[in-house]
Design brief:
Number of helices: 3
Shape: globular
Order of helices and strands: HHEEHEEEEE
Helix content: 25-40%
Distance between the termini: 73 Å
Length: 162
């Protein structure tokens, strides 16, 4: 009995599986690199840094404590990406946003979702924490942020030094 064709089929199948896994890992790393560029854009406050990684037609959405102080209410801010970045300017403050754990990345074909907890610092002082959630799309072989959402939380932050 000749098993050589069967072995070849198994080896070809394993090679294809490894190739797909490598491609997905490369995409995962590229997606996380885009998110790091978003954190860098927060630091620079430069609208062009945002434009380089976002789709202008996408949306930016944030939830933060309501101005009336009611802990059961949230204020929602929604803008098209281009409208959001066009209002940015470097105001002299140093902003730092960073992951506080390993973000989750889910991807299939040309779409991906990143979800992770972050903390935010202004001029070296802790400001708030929250969750970032971003939808990314692969356009012209580059990952871009289509939509981004986040929460602004002042309590129960794991890295709050106070």
């Amino acid at each position: 009995m000749n098993t050589e064709p069967g072995i070849r089929l198994v080896l070809i199948s394993l090679a294809l599986i490894c190739s797909v896994a490598d491609a997905q890992e490369n995409d995962r790393l590229a997606i996380l690199a885009v998110m790091e560029k978003a954190f860098e854009a927060v630091r620079t406050g430069d609208p062009d840094d945002w434009r380089a990684i976002q789709l202008a037609e996408g949306t930016t959405l944030s939830f933060r404590p309501h101005p009336d102080g009611d802990p059961n209410r949230q204020e929602m801010r929604l803008a098209q990406n281009e409208a959001f970045v066009s209002k940015l300017e470097n105001d002299g403050h140093v902003y730092v946003e960073r992951w506080t754990g390993e973000p989750t990345v889910m991807l299939r074909g040309p779409i991906a979702v990143v979800w992770g907890e972050y903390d935010f610092w202004i001029d070296g002082e802790f400001s708030h924490c929250g969750v970032d959630s971003a939808d990314l799309v692969k356009v012209d072989n580059q990952w871009k942020i289509a939509n981004m959402m986040w929460t602004v939380e002042k309590e129960d932050c794991p890295t709050n030094p106070n």
